[in-house]
Specification:
about 85% helix
Length: about 190
Amino acid sequence: MDFFANIDAWINQFLLNIGIYGPLLGCICIVLESILPILPLFVFITINFLAFGPFFGFFISWIFTVIGCLLSFFLFRYKIKNWFDAKTKKKEKIKKLMHIVDKIKLEQLTTLIAIPFTPAFLVNIAVGLSKMSFKKFMVALLIGKIFLVWFWGFVGTSLIQSLTHPIALLKVIILLLLAFLISKLLNKKLEIE
């Protein structure tokens, strides 16, 4: 537990030393993380929560996470999809996999996006290369990222407590259930599928 306390202290000291440039860098890195999966999203969300507080930190992180996912989606949909389709035209396994992505339900996609450990870049690539409608992806993204950002902000600002209390796992399960239910309701209202 000393290790996590040291990380927490280091992040706080780092934020004090770099001032407003820290959160600004965090926002840019949140966008880049949706394209480059090597960057740790939870660190940047934590920086925003610590720098701007829970309300503005959440809102800023959510907006920039959505922007990053949309940029990744558009890159693959409009720059790579035609090349990908031409290269995989005769590959049945890939066609079956893409058919599964095409037919995924809104609530399933929303839940997948809301799971904290789902690699966002893989979802963005798969959806960008699929025939899924932008409307479905956008709704799932807007709902799912709310829960993901809240989770990482909560865990990041109370890391030690989250690791020592099993209640954090229960909160994750409740958040995923909420994401599923909200997307199910919106799916009926907006008639996305």
